């Protein structure tokens, strides 16, 4: 799809105006970067609004804009579960993990495991984190972004991927997490506005909400599918999504890094709560346009073009440019977040710990920027490799997460909730689990030994998680208990902070009520 045929002068002005504004925001934020703590954690001065928008913006990448509309075009709102089932995991992050993270004053999630288990656990997790960031946040996002840029401008995939990475590197190298969070906030406000406009235009063109509801198969409006569904059976979602969610929302460096930069516990927890409310929007503003596209353009050859079809066919001049700017925003937001996390983990957990412990603050900042550039180049190669996998974008992203999640989810969850878990069990689970999960994941994505050989990826993720949890528990019980003192309990942490959780629990309770109401409505 060559979108240049649909662009008018006003659209070009909007796109250029957006890019200039974004560059100004990034340069303004970069003035505050004077030391490594500013580059990696924003100086630990982030407020709840910036945290909430930035977490949501990191999650809302190309997989939401294009892949969600594509899935909605083909199957309806079932993909909304990947947004709405996040709320229990966000509660877990806010009320259990955030207090422990901020109390221990960590800069990375591997550093947290070094305090719970040992330095050897930190080393293993650091390398695992690097692999996960490279594959999912950088390789996967670049691939999805490259497809979109190719559709927009009719460029070759390699040129689209390279151009996108070049822009993301420039923001991350200059401003670090401060620039990432500031631009995320600006971009996400634009994203909400543009997506709401597209949703309203889509419903209007269909003929109203009632016409939209009646014009598609009834199961398009069901969040849960029958157990016989080949890809998204209800029990796979209920069992498998929490595994993905524990890793993605509670332990993944790219998500957690925003919370680690919070100015205090209250801002950290409220930022996560704000993300929970923003996640409600996902189904309405990312999936409804896909369903409307199914009604208006039922003969699309490739469902992945549903989002851009709606943009180019329905929106007037000027708004087309705004939505293209938003697409660029979502791409840059996710890629620069991944780059910043990559440089943080390598610089603080590997370079400053193992390679050059005496490194000065200036040397760590310089190394972080070099890692950003090198990681970006490697990610371009990974993105082009993913083009060989025969899956739609949504399934590809969720499949990758499903096979990355079990080892990390197991070690973090048992490490936080079970004092008897020891270092030997944690390290063995990380090593054995990583080899097992990545091996099965590569086999499944490549169709070996044949397509359909493995269960749906969500069920497979649950089976792997259950097996690794059992393995870690048994090995912990068969070996010596941990010698070091466990991390302080939540009551002790809250008591030390002199912080009442009553208000935040009430706000979470309201969100739970809203989510339960939505699930009743859509079933």
From TrEMBL:
| Gene3D superfamilies recorded | Sodium/glucose cotransporter
Q: What is its main location?
A: membrane
**The keyword Transmembrane belongs to this UniProt entry's keyword annotation:** yes
Name a GO molecular-function annotation.
D-glucose:sodium symporter activity
Q: Which domain of life is it from?
A: Bacteria
TM segment ranges: 12-30, 51-73, 85-103, 124-149, 155-182, 189-207, 232-250, 271-297, 317-335, 370-389, 395-417, 424-445, 457-478, 499-522
Question: Looking at the Swiss-Prot or TrEMBL record, what is one Pfam family this protein matches?
Answer: SSF
Q: Which InterPro entries match?
A: Na/Glc_symporter_sf (IPR038377), Na/solute_symporter (IPR001734)
The subcellular location is:
Membrane
Question: Can you cite an annotated GO cellular component?
Answer: plasma membrane
What kind of membrane protein is this, topologically?
A: Multi-pass membrane protein
Keywords of the record: Membrane, Transmembrane, Transmembrane helix
NCBIfam families, sorted? sss
Record's family?
Answer: Belongs to the sodium:solute symporter (SSF) (TC 2.A.21) family.
This protein's name: Sodium:solute symporter
User: To which species is this protein native?
Assistant: Rapidithrix thailandica
């Amino acid at each position: 799809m060559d979108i240049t045929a649909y662009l008018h002068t006003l659209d070009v002005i909007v796109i250029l105006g957006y890019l200039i504004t974004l560059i100004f925001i990034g340069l303004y934020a970069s003035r505050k970067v004077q030391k490594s703590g500013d580059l990696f954690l924003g100086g630990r001065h982030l407020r709840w609004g910036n945290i909430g928008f930035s977490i949501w913006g990191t999650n809302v990448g190309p997989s939401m804009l294009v892949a969600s509309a594509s899935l909605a075009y083909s199957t309806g709102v079932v993909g909304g579960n990947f947004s709405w089932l996040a709320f229990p995991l966000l509660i877990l992050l806010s009320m259990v993990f955030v207090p422990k993270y901020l109390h221990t004053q960590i800069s990375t999630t591997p550093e947290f495991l070094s305090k719970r288990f040992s330095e050897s656990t930190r080393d293993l997790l650091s390398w695992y984190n690097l692999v996960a960031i490279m594959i999912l946040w950088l390789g996967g996002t670049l691939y999805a972004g490259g497809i979109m840029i190719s559709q927009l401008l009719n460029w070759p995939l390699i040129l689209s991927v390279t151009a996108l990475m070049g822009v993301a590197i420039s923001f991350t190298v200059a401003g670090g997490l401060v620039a990432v969070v500031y631009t995320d906030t600006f971009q996400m406000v634009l994203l909400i506005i543009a997506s709401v406009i597209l949703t309203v235009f889509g419903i209007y063109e269909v003929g109203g909400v009632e016409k939209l509801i009646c014009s598609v198969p009834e199961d398009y409006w069901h969040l849960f599918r029958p157990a016989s569904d080949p890809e998204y059976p209800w029990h796979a979602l209920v069992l498998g999504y929490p595994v993905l969610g524990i890793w993605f929302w509670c332990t993944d460096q790219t998500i957690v890094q925003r919370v680690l930069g919070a100015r205090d516990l209250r801002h950290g927890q409220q930022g996560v709560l704000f993300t929970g409310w923003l996640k409600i929007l996902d189904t309405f503003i990312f999936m409804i346009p896909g369903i409307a596209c199914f009604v208006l353009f039922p003969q699309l050859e490739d469902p992945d073009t549903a989002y851009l079809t709606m943009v180019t066919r329905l929106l007037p001049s000027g708004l087309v440019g705004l939505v293209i700017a938003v697409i660029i925003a979502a791409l840059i937001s996710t890629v620069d977040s991944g780059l910043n996390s990559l440089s943080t983990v390598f610089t603080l957990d590997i370079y400053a710990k193992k390679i050059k412990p005496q490194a000065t603050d200036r040397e760590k900042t310089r190394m972080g920027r070099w890692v950003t550039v090198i990681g970006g180049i490697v990610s371009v190669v990974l993105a082009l490799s993913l083009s060989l996998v025969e899956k739609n974008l949504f399934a590809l992203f969720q499949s990758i997460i499903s096979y990355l999640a079990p080892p990390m989810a197991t070690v973090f969850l048992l490490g936080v909730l079970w004092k008897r878990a020891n270092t030997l069990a944690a390290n063995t689970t990380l090593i054995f689990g990583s080899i097992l999960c990545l091996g099965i994941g590569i086999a499944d994505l490549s169709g070996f030994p044949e397509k359909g050989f493995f269960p749906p990826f969500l069920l497979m993720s649950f089976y792997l998680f259950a097996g690794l949890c059992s393995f870690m528990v048994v090995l912990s019980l068969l070996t010596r208990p941990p010698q070091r003192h466990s991390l302080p309990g939540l009551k002790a942490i809250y008591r030390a902070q002199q912080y009442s959780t009553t208000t935040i629990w009430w706000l979470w309770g309201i969100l739970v009520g809203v989510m339960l109401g939505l699930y009743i409505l859509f079933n």
